[in-house]
Amino acid sequence: MSAPVQVKGEVLSRRRVGAYHLLEVAAGGIAERARPGQFVAVSVGGRASAMLLRRSFAIYRATPTGAYTGTVQFVVGVHGRGTEWLAGVRPGEPLDLVGPLGTPFRMPGSPVGCLLVGGGYGSAPLFGLAEALRARECRVDLLIGAGTVDRLFGELEAKRTAGAVTVTTDDGSAGFRGTVADLLPDELERTGALVVYACGPMPMLRAVGAVADSYGLPCQVAVEESMACAIGVCMTCVLPVVGEDGVTRMARSCVDGPVFDAQRVRWDDVGTVPPDALGAPVPPASGEALCGGAGPGAGGGT
Ligand SMILES: Cc1cc2nc3c(=O)[nH]c(=O)nc-3n(C[C@H](O)[C@H](O)[C@H](O)COP(=O)(O)OP(=O)(O)OC[C@H]3O[C@@H](n4cnc5c(N)ncnc54)[C@H](O)[C@@H]3O)c2cc1C
Ligand code: FES
Fold first, then answer.
1. Cβ distance 175 to 165 under 8 Å?
2. Which contacts (CB < 8 Å, 24+ apart) does range 233-236 have?
3. Percent above pLDDT 70 for the chain
4. Dist. CA 287 → ligand 1 center (Å)
5. Which of 11, 36, 152, 259 could pair with 128 in a Cys bridge, judged by C-beta atoms 3.0 to 4.6 Å apart?
């Protein structure tokens, strides 16, 4: 896989899409290397900012050539200070990106039916994936959902990209009322898909993985864990994943993921280091005093 690069890019456009902002950035070097499922880490706040940590965004579109050397598009949902700043950038402004980062979705070995499931802005990386799958003669169907209609991403594009598109919203403001996981059994029956791919909030990924598992189908999920460095150094993004040898390891979602087999993630233990994980701290013997002190997350800004 190509090594990530740091690019001093330039914002080409920013436009509202429902509740989100779609940014297009001239980022030659990243666009050429990117594959579906990978992400970029974006510097926020400008040169004098105290926001030191980059913010991560799944790549929606990577176009290697064109009027500019290469462009990358990603979708921003405003969450905190960093995304708020990004929602205000203007064409012509500089933007520093590192990418492409993380593992891409793996392709099936032969043409099979694939069901792609997206939640909120998590639908964004599924469009490039759909194209890559179709280039391999896989049938592609899409199931996308969100809390409300303005938080759906790519509904119209989905209709152009996939064989069949099913939409859900929690409040029924578009498509079926309910979650993508509620509709998934029907969609698997109807489409006959043999492989499931999903991207969206963690509870959704867990639910989708469980349904796929109940049908005995492989399911790849692109997880979203909080990240500090995004390059495999700091261990803030770890989650417990069972390896082929049956051993649980704390996998770094920025470099070992974000794409994992759903069946290998220990969903009940996400956010913890299970005692049986390789390298987990040994609990103190009974009666031994616990020392206080600053942990790795103590203090500092972001
Ligand atoms: C692989 C990956 C892909 C992502 N793709 C998208 C996307 O396509 N569109 C989108 O809108 N958002 C995406 N996110 C989430 C996005 O990174 C966070 O919403 C963003 O970092 C929040 O920054 P903030 O300054 O607005 O919020 P703050 O809460 O102020 O952020 C403070 C710190 O926490 C981290 N953080 C907070 N929330 C999250 C979160 N949900 N995930 C990861 N780190 C977080 C930030 O990186 C920052 O270091 C993705 C996250 C990951 C890990
Ligand atoms: S974010 Fe630092 S190791 Fe993953």
1. no
2. 234/296, 235/296, 236/296, 236/297
3. 93
4. 41
5. 36
Are residues 253 and 223 in contact, defined by beta-carbon separation less than 8 angstroms?
yes
Q: CA-CA distance, 135 to 120, in Å (whole number)?
A: 25
What is the rounded distance in angstroms from the CA atom of residue 300 to the CA atom of residue 297?
Answer: 8
In the Cβ-directed half-sphere of 71, how many Cα atoms lie within 13 Å?
16
Residue 252: nearest ligand to its CA?
2
pTM over 0.85: yes
pLDDT in tens, 177-223: 999 999 999 999 999 999 999 999 999 999 999 999 999 999 999 99
Distance 55 CA to ligand 1 centre (A): 6
Atom of ligand 2 nearest to the CA of 234: 2
* The pLDDT value given to residue 86: 97
What average pLDDT does range 3-16 have in this prediction?
94
Ligand 2 centre and the CA of 238: distance in Å?
7
Give the 3-state secondary structure of residue 267: helix
- Best residue for ligand 2 mutational test, from 39, 223, 237, 250 (most atoms within 8 Å of Cβ): 237
* 282 C-alpha to ligand 1 centroid (Å): 32
Largest CA distance in the chain: 69
